[in-house]
Please model this.
Amino acid sequence: MHDRLLPWYAAHRRDLPWRAPERSPWGVLVSEVMLQQTPVARVLPVWERWMSRWPTPSALAAAPTGDAVREWGRLGYPRRALRLHAAATAVRDAHDGQVPADEAVLRTLPGVGDYTAAAVSAFAFGRRATVVDTNVRRVQARSVSGLALPAPALTRAETALAARLLPEDDEQTATWSVAVMELGALVCTARAPRCSACPLADVCAWRAAGSPAPTGPPRRGQRWTGTDRQCRGTLLQVLRDSAGPVPAHRLQAAWPVPGVPDEQGQAARQRERCLDALVAEGLVEPLPGARFRLPGT
DNA sequence: AATCCGTGGCT
DNA sequence: TAGCCAAGGAT
Model:
């Protein structure tokens, strides 16, 4: 596989700023956190502004958390902004301001799980690490295991397979991992894979089996309308888009939104519950006089 | 282990 | 059009 995929990657790789030679480990960490469950196209402009404003972990750590939440914009999952700020603070206070290279140390940072720790160690420092994301899982499931899609949750076997597929040469492992991910992102996609453009097509176990349809239970979709997630997003958007403190009545006016049913005032209770949770999580700061704002802004 | 946590483009 | 899903993490 290596002699097929590595040349393909060299020819087709996207020139993303966090892959540029001059990017810092901090830039790589920021990109990996932003890319969690979020498409590249939406991350690009936010990453550029973020790195321009906060070129180092210490720079971010010196800013109010609310500034990070606002700069996060509409990337989604705004707790990631909070965790990235916390990670920057930990880097400043416990690691002399330098993003650590060791996977196990990275793993201790807020918002950094198994995937992100391996990715930063590999992509920012060139270390040997087993990087397993949804792209890697899908490419392996198809090309090696002959399955249309990977299992719902990451298995030990998948991690073991990813480790076994890494090139022996330590110098090549990071490039290999990003190449597998790039293939999953551009060719071996979840919905409509472009097998005719795939460098692995003639060795792919899934194709050899006749490209069978997915087996197992269909993924249950995430509801959205009327959920706490929609409510939280709506409340936070009001605060993001406001320069100063927001009176409670403006939040009350924002929820429920048109299209969301409000039986017996349940939407009002939901709004208060979500607002309380946002405050408890540190995404919103309550002020005297029934006003609210992004923390420290 | 299952669920929660945003957002918006794509088919 | 309404799901589907995108470089996961925390609990």
